[in-house]
Inverse folding.
C-alpha cells in the first residue's frame, strides 16, 4: 500500500510539473503581453530568452527577457542587432569588460565599436567624433546612450563640422538639430552663414515657439561655415 501511494504521489508530481510547463509555453504564445512577460520571468533557457529579446513585438517583454539574460555571448548578440535603443542599452550595460573589449575590436558595425569603446572609457564622445563619422557617432549616442547626456560633445562636433565646411555633412547636421537640438545649437546654425543650416534653425525656432530677433553684434558668428578652409 505504501509503495502504491508513493507511485501515485510521483505521478501527481509529474502531472503538476508537466501542467506548469504547458502553461508556461502557452503564456509565451499569449496575445496578452503581460502574460508573456510573466512567462519570461520564469525562463532560464538563455537561447530562448535572447530570441524573445530580439523578436517579441512588445517592448516590456523584450526588456524582461534582457533582464533575465546572463549569457555574455547572447547579450552581445542583442547589442549587435540593436533591436531598440532601450533594449540595446540594457544589454550593453550587462556586458563584462572582456565582452566589451571583444566588441570594441571585432564588431563589424562601427556603431557597436563606438559604444563599446565609450563604455570601456577608451574614448569619450568628443574623441569618438574625432575618430568616426558624424552619422555613426550620433547613431551610437542615440542607441546606446542619451543625446541629453552627450549634448556638449554633440554641439562641439557640430561646430567643428561647420568650420570644416563639408557639404556632405549638411543632411546629418540638419537631422541633429531637428531631433536633438536646443536653442544654443539653433543659434549656431542660424548665424553660421550656411543657408540650409540657417533655414533649418528658423524652422526649429518656429516649431519650438522661439522668435528670432535681429540685434547688432556678432552673437554666434564665431562659428562660420568653412572658416577652417580660409
Amino acid at each position: 500500500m505504501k509503495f502504491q501511494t508513493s507511485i501515485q504521489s510521483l505521478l501527481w508530481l509529474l502531472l503538476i510539473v508537466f501542467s506548469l510547463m504547458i502553461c508556461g509555453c502557452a503564456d509565451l504564445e499569449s496575445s496578452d503581453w503581460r502574460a508573456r512577460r510573466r512567462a519570461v520571468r520564469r525562463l532560464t533557457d538563455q537561447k530562448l530568452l535572447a530570441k524573445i529579446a530580439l523578436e517579441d513585438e512588445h517592448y516590456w517583454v523584450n526588456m524582461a527577457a534582457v533582464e533575465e539574460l546572463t549569457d555574455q555571448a547572447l547579450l552581445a548578440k542583442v547589442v549587435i542587432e540593436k533591436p531598440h535603443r532601450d533594449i540595446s542599452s540594457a544589454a550593453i550595460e550587462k556586458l563584462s569588460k572582456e565582452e566589451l573589449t571583444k566588441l570594441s575590436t571585432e564588431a563589424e558595425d562601427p556603431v557597436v565599436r563606438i559604444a563599446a569603446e565609450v563604455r570601456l572609457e577608451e574614448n569619450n564622445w568628443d574623441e569618438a567624433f574625432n575618430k568616426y563619422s558624424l552619422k555613426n557617432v550620433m547613431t551610437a549616442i542615440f542607441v546606446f546612450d542619451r543625446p541629453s547626456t552627450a549634448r556638449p560633445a554633440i554641439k562641439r562636433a557640430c561646430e567643428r563640422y561647420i568650420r570644416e565646411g563639408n557639404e556632405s555633412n549638411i543632411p546629418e547636421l540638419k537631422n541633429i538639430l531637428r531631433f536633438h537640438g536646443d536653442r544654443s545649437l539653433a543659434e549656431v546654425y542660424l548665424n553660421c552663414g550656411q543657408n540650409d543650416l540657417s533655414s533649418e534653425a528658423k524652422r526649429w525656432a518656429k516649431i519650438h515657439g522661439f522668435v528670432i530677433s535681429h540685434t547688432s553684434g556678432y552673437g554666434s558668428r564665431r562659428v562660420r561655415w568653412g572658416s577652417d578652409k580660409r
Observations:
- Residues 146-230 form one domain.
- The first helix runs from residue 2 to 28.
